[in-house]
Design a protein that fits this description.
The complex is a heterodimer of chains A (304) and B (413). Helices cover 72% and strands 1% of the residues of chain A. In chain A, β1 (51-52) and β2 (60-61) form a beta hairpin. Chain A starts with 11 loop residues before the first helix and ends with a helix. Chain A is built from 14 helices and two strands, in the order αββααααααααααααα. With 304 residues, chain A is an all-alpha fold. Chain A has a two-stranded antiparallel ribbon. The longest helix of chain A has 37 residues, at 12-48. Chain B has two domains: 2-137 and 301-360, D-Maltodextrin-Binding Protein, domain 2, CATH 3.40.190; 140-297 and 375-412, Periplasmic binding protein-like II (D-Maltodextrin-Binding Protein, domain 2). Chain B is 53% helix and 15% strand. Chain B contains 19 helices and 13 strands. Chain B is globular and about 70 Å long. Residues 1-22 of chain B have low confidence and may be disordered. At the A-B interface, loops of A face α3, α4 and α18 of B.
Amino acid sequence: MSVTPDTHGTPAPRRRRRSQLTPWLFLTPGILMFAVYVVIPIFQSFWISFHSWDGIGEARWIGLSNYSELWWDEAFYTSLKNNVIWLVLYMLAVPFGLLIALFLNQTVRGIRIYKSLFFFPFVISQVVVGLMFSWFYAPDFGLLYTLIEAVTGDGVAILADERFVTYGIIAAGLWPQIAYCMILYLTGLNAVAPDQIEAARLDGAKGWKMLWHVIIPQLRPATFIAVVVTVIGALRSFDLVSIMTAGGPFGSSRVLSYYMYEQALSEYGYRMGYGAAIAVVLFAIMMIFISGFIWKMWRDEKGV
Amino acid sequence: MFQVKHGLAMAALLATTAPAFAQTRTLVMNTDASDPAPKAAFEQLIADFEAEHPDIKVEVNVFDHEGYKTAIRNFLTADAPDLANWYAGNRMRPFVEANQFMDVSDVWAENGLEESLGSAASSMTIDGKQWGVPYTYYQWGIYFNRDAYAQAGVDPDTIETWDDFVAACEKIDAAGIDCLTTGSKALWPIAGIFDYLNLRTNGYDFHMQLTSGEVPWTDDRVKATFANWEKVLPYTTDNHAAIDWQDAVANLVQGKAANYVMGNFAVAAFKDGGMTDENLGFMPFPTVDASIPRAEDAPTDTIHIPAGAKNPEDAKLFLAFLARADVQTKMNETLGQLPINAESSVGEDPYLQQGFELLSTAEGGIAQFFDRDASPEMAKAGMEGFQEFMVRPERLDNILDRLERQRQRLAGQ
């Protein structure tokens, strides 16, 4: 049947119309989901942020009051500062991930086991990571605490000290994030062209030169993804803060996403409007990075 | 054709459900009684109620204790049960003001509850009406390790005033034991210390004015409370900000600490850790100013009828049952807490008997606890301030300024 040529001559425009329609048909479910669960809630958050609302009663329009309050809110600046610290230090996951990937990218007996062991922290839940590090830091019996006590004679309870608490949580977050970057680089290393390495070797390149001029340029796609997931991971850090300190001591380890949760949804909060205003600010910060990434991807694709 | 089918289906539906309605009426109850003791107490309560009212069937939905605090906000509006657990004082105010709880003043009037539940009446009343029925509370105070006191050579029974307590702390500290332990990771345990010091330093009325936002936090009387607190900070467990209340229980059980300001629910944890009536002691919080009538903290648990209840008549029957002296006696025996009804009796437990004595003679008044008396946002800010004060007492003025700004913002709403 299908080999029979179409002698009836279906008019071409209709066929074209059908071929134009098909992609939209396939896209519709995705677009619908994306609209209902992502796009519309974004606009709802903007709308709620102009109200004073406890989530059950009447919402009252208060204009920009939530934002002006945010401007004077010390806790907001603490959260913002911590988010910046997260963003900067979380970036360490990228070079460390590359380092471990390079180290593991060899063919020895049982390498798959080592690779999966290094990947392990990314597989376990963030909640478990948080609990493990809480015990690691715990006063009196924690491994790190007793170690510091043995060396300096006086233990430091990392999670109870406002000076160290954020760094302590970031260290816990880096552990799985490094594993994530490592796996991205390991797949990237598989795609490195062997003939180029061969050629470079013939030209006498080795060590750092080889890495910097031959390997890393070929890993650019992996680096791009690693930076993207790390930036987004740093900005939406929530679970570790919630598990390890609940924002404490006295709010010094809060990040924006946790502060938003506290204000809008926790037992002592239910200020939906104020929480939404924090969410909008966090969204704006994320937008800077996300539009940067999209612009770069768009430029790269056009270049091809 | 469709209509015929539809009609048939309706008939079938009616045929199956109608007799069921005729035989039993249903009460749906949502509760956070997920821990073993509350769960057993509620099962017993419901079995007794059903035995007395065979035509009423109670369906219970048990929620996890923490999750319930969020869930109640959803189910009150979306799918209201006939009965729901909650707490007295300002904790129920948002639901009362949002018209989510039903006025049950008629249950109070008909059963003379104003009289029998007198000690909790004020905390159940908003705008002159009652919004639920309280069924249990428990005392707060100082639980102490007698062995630790013996080791330091101090007799705990001689402690009457705050100065006695501070003097005892010096000796206990000299013996290498933390005088006061607490775990402030979840913030609320230290609010008990503030409540008591403020109640003892400034009295019940001032404490209530402060927690309801009528007095500035920068008031000198508030500073006096913190000055008293500062006296014991050097003898308080380090790193309390990193540990939970259960970890601090371990400190007391192991004799690393001597005193713990806690609620009576902690007795079970102390005993699980191996303490007995021999070495676990309880004392009322010491006096600061003898001229001030003694007030106590006693958080009260309550049951309410949501405004959207489908069977409010039977729900009111249930509340009247819950308020009865014999019911509260039996229920609190299982809970290991104190009944509210004045005609109820308390079990053999020495801590409960002391607590019953303590609360029934508290001429100053009964506070609900800081996070129930203060509005939720003020409570959070306040408890964070207390924690910061305990770690960095030199920042007190800064902290009080911040709390005052928060109070003014809330007052302006």
